[in-house]
């Protein structure tokens, strides 16, 4: 087989994680966030597996198109809404919900009636308020006025969901989240419509933010949203295991150096393995020497720099290692959060980073 790096997606884990999200959510509806190709797990695969979710959340129209093309009939919410006027016709044709976060989008809707009459159905919208993240959304002070503008449009469904996004809900004692909840509640007090505030961390740490909908990504994939904890610590299971094989084992003398830039010096005569994975597959180049891997289930660690196709591994603790042995990089046996910490990033960044060279396989467990 030409490709050795393998991402195994655990469909059972995805389903069980959704069930756990539902337990946390109480009666709130669950939007399964599947942006960035399902956090790297495969958009269509995740959507098919999480058919029980009340809606799917995608970043942009193109993902909605992919899901409809694959036959998904679920409610789909495009989290950044239309990017240009021509998108509106696609939203209608594909029956996608649009998050409305900017006045230009309302202007496009207001200019739309002719298209609307020919295609019939009012657009379902989620009105987004910027309560402190300062990325997308209307100022809370504008909420009533913007809501009224949307309600006045015949081509918009009157059933408007009110939404906001948290900047720091993963810090369970960060006052910003409490302020954001308060600001949202105050701005929407007089407005009709369902409320959607919480992401994964909001769901776990901020009961006051539960609302009528939760928008959950990370936890569905078993990814921790809390510093210093892995998904399992929070009761969720990893949905991706990344593995490859050892393709070389050599004895290297004390004082010799390993890999590009000769950054790592052998402290003694030792055995060094080479595994077939590198940053060309999405394994982070920033993973430092000492980043753990498992060779045939036994703990070992990376030495030297990660290169495009290969990583070098200290095999002193795995004396019986052989060429062909399985090397696990992260997943069920090794929390991806641990690797992220060694690479100076977060788990989401790693699972989203798998390249097309990696072979994806599914298992039911
Ligand atoms: C990505 C995203 C989410 C999901 O966030 P998680 O932390 O992965 O649960 C929810 N809402 C919006 C607007 C997002 O962009």
Brief rundown of the structure:
With 365 residues, the chain is an alpha/beta fold.
Instruction: Write down the CATH topology of the largest domain.
Output: TIM Barrel
Provide a count of the helices: 12
Question: Which class of secondary structure composition applies to the elements?
Answer: alpha/beta
* Average pLDDT, all residues: 96
Principal-axes shape call: elongated
Low-confidence segments, given as residue ranges, are: none
Q: First CA to last CA: what distance?
A: 24 Å
Number of discrete domains: 2
Alpha-carbon Rg, integer: 24 Å
**CATH architecture group name of the largest domain:** Alpha-Beta Barrel
Described by strand count, sense and barrel closure, the largest sheet is:
8 strands, parallel
Q: Roughly what percent helix? A: 25-40%
CATH superfamily of the largest domain: Alanine racemase
Along the chain, the helix and strand elements come as: EHEHHEHEHEHHEHEHEHEEEEEEEEEHHE
Distinct ligands = pyridoxal-5'-phosphate
| CATH class type of the largest domain | Alpha Beta
The percent range for strand residues is 15-25%
Describe what this molecule looks like in 3D.
Helix 9 links the parallel strand 7 and strand 8. The model has no long low-confidence stretch (mean pLDDT 96). Helix 4 runs parallel beside helix 5. It is built from twelve helices and 18 strands. The protein has two domains: 213 residues, TIM Barrel (Alpha-Beta Barrel); 124 residues, Lyase, Ornithine Decarboxylase, Chain A, domain 1, CATH 2.40.37. The two termini are 24 Å apart. By secondary structure, the protein is α/β, with parallel strands linked by helices. Pyridoxal-5'-phosphate binds next to helix 10 and strand 9. The site of pyridoxal-5'-phosphate has 12 residues, from helix 10 and strand 9.
């Amino acid at each position: 087989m030409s490709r050795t790096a393998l991402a195994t997606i655990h469909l059972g884990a995805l389903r069980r994680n959704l069930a756990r999200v539902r337990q946390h959510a109480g009666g709130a509806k669950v939007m399964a966030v599947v942006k960035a190709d399902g956090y790297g797990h495969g958009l269509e695969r995740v959507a098919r597996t999480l058919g029980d979710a009340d809606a799917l959340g995608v970043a942009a129209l193109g993902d909605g198109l992919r899901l409809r093309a694959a036959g998904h009939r679920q409610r789909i919410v495009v989290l950044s809404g239309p990017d240009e006027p021509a998108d509106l016709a696609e939203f209608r044709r594909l029956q996608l919900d649009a998050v409305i976060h900017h006045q230009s989008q309302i202007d496009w809707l207001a200019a739309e009636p002719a298209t609307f009459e020919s295609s019939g159905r009012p657009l379902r919208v989620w009105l987004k308020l910027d309560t402190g993240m300062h990325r997308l959304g209307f100022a809370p002070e504008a909420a009533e006025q913007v809501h009224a503008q949307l309600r006045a449009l015949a081509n918009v469904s009157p059933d408007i969901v009110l939404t906001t996004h948290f900047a720091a809900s993963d810090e369970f004692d960060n006052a910003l989240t409490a302020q954001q909840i308060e600001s949202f509640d105050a701005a929407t007090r007089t407005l009709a419509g369902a409320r959607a505030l919480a992401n994964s961390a909001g769901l776990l740490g901020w009961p006051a933010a539960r609302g009528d909908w939760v928008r959950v990504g990370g936890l569905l994939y078993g990814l921790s949203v809390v510093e210093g904890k892995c998904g399992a610590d929070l009761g969720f299971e990893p949905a991706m295991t990344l593995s490859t094989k050892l393709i070389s084992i050599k004895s290297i003398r004390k004082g010799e150096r390993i890999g590009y830039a000769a950054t790592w010096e052998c402290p003694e005569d030792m055995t060094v393995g080479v595994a077939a994975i590198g940053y060309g597959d999405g394994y982070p180049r920033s993973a430092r020497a000492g980043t753990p891997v498992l060779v045939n289930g036994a703990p070992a660690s990376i030495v030297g720099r990660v290169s495009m196709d290969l990583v070098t591994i200290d095999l002193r603790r795995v004396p019986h290692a052989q060429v062909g042995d399985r090397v696990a990089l992260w997943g069920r046996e090794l929390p991806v959060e641990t690797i992220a910490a060694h690479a100076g990033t977060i788990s989401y960044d790693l699972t989203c980073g798998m390249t097309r060279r990696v072979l994806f396989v599914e298992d039911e467990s």
